[in-house]
Amino acid sequence: MRIVRIANFVTESSGGLRTALHELGAGYEAAGHEATLIVPGARRSDVRTAQGRVITLPAPGVPGMGGYRVLMDRRRTAAVLRGLAPDRIEVSDRTTLRWVGRWARRAGVPSVMVSHESLDGLSRLFGPAASRRVVDRANARTAADHTTVVCTTGWAAAEFTRIGARNVVRVPLGVDLDRFSPSRFDAGMRRRWAAPGDLLLLHCGRLSAEKRPRRSLNALAALHAAGVPAVLVVAGGGPLRPALQGEAADRGLPVRFLGHVRDRDELAGLLATADVVLAPGPVETFGLAALEALAGGTPVVASADSALPEVIGAAGIAAPGEGPAYAQAVLDLMGRPERRRTAREQACRYPWAASVDGFLAAHGIVAARC
Question: Residue ranges of the Glycosyltransferase subfamily 4-like N-terminal domain (predicted)?
C-alpha cells in the first residue's frame, strides 16, 4: 500500500509530532508498505529516510510561532498528492489541512485524520472561548471530511464522542523502549546540573503558551519556599524562552535552559537521570515526552486537565492549578520507593509496534507480522 502522510507545524526542533511521524513511517515501511511524508519547509526537497520518502514543499513561516511553517498553496499540494497516487492518506493537522480529507474523498482515497490537538482544550486556553456549539460544529465537519479519525487517548476522543461521531478509533502512541531506558541514567550529567542532595526536576517540552511552562517555575519556587533544595532543567525552545529566562533570574530560581535537545540519546539520558519530570501542559492529547520519561524510569507530575493522567497511570501524579500543587506532587512521588520500577512498567504497555498495527488497522490494513 502507498500511504501518503501530510503534516504542518513540523520543524527540525519539533518534539512529539516529529517523533510520532518518524516512528509510524518507519513502522509502515517495516511492514512492507510504501510511506511518503509531505511537510512544509524553507525550500523543496525529496529524500529517502528510515521513515520512507520525505517531500518538503516551500511554505511561509507563521509569525510568532518559533519557526513553524504551513502549507498554504493548496493547488500545488494537491498536484503533489495526485502525482503520488496514494492508496491511503493520513493527515496530521486537523485545522489547516482539513481540506485534504475532502480532496481524498473526491479522489476516492480513504483518509485518516490524526487528532493531535483538542479543539475543546484550545478553545478554553485562548479567549474569547468558543461556545461548545461552535466546537461541536467544527468537530462534526472534521469527522465528516475523513474516513476515520484517530484519537490517541480517551480524553482526546471525548469531544468526538460527545457529538456522536461514529468513525472515531482510539490508538495510543508508543515509545522506543530500547533508547529510553533506566540504563541511560548518567551520574556525570546529574553532577553537572544538581548538587548532592538536590532534587533534579526536568521540564521537557516546547516553551509556548499552550504548554504552560511557567507552571514548572512555580513548582520550583514552591519547593524552595518549603525549604526543599531543587533545580530545574528545561529541555525545549520556543517563543517564551526569553521571558522565562528573565523571570527565573528575577525570582532567583536555579533553572538551566538547554534549548531544544536535538540528540535523542542525550534526551534519553536527561529523562532517565531526572528525579521527576514535569508535564504541565493542560491540553496535551497524549504526552509523548512524559511517556519517554516513564520508559527511563522517571515518574511524572502532569496537569490534571490533560490526557496525561490516562497515560501515566500509577507512575505519576496529576496536579491541578498553576504550579504550587506540583511541588507537593513531586514530594509525594519522591516518597514512593518503587517509583522507578512502576514508571518503567507503565511505559512497557506502549510499544511502537502496537501503535503501528493500530494505525494500519485504522487505515483498513491488517498488519502481517511473523
Answer: 15-174
Inter-residue contact 214 to 247 (CB < 8 Å): yes
pLDDT digits (tens, 9 = 90+) for 73-101: 999 999 999 999 999 999 999 889 999 99
Please enumerate in sequence order all residues whose Cβ is within 8 A of that of 83, keeping only pairs 6 or more positions apart, or say none: none
Q: What is the pLDDT of residues 110-132, one digit of tens each?
A: 999 999 988 888 877 765 555 78
250 falls within a domain: yes
Report the distance separating Cα 200 and Cα 274, nearest Å: 5
Question: Does 144 share its domain with 290?
Answer: no
Rounded CA-CA distance 227/233 in Å is: 19
| Contact predicate 351/175, CB 8 Å | yes
Whether 29 and 14 share a structural domain = yes
Question: How far apart are alpha carbons 54 and 41 in whole angstroms?
Answer: 11
Q: 131 in helix, strand or coil? A: coil
Given a contact cutoff of 8 angstroms between Cβ atoms, the answer to whether 10 and 37 are in contact is no
DSSP secondary-structure letter at 95? S
Q: Which of 230, 231, 185 is nearest to 340 (CA)?
A: 185
Number of structural domains, the chain? 2
Count Cβ atoms below 10 Å from residue 134 Cβ, excluding itself. Answer: 12
Q: What is the Cα 242 distance to its own chain's centre?
A: 23
Rounded Cα distance between 271 and 261, Å, is 11
User: Using an 8 Å Cβ cutoff, are 150 and 112 in contact?
Assistant: yes
Residue 270 belongs to domain spanning: 182-347
End-to-end alpha carbon distance in the chain: 19
Please report, for the domain that includes residue 29, its CATH number.
Answer: 3.40.50.2000
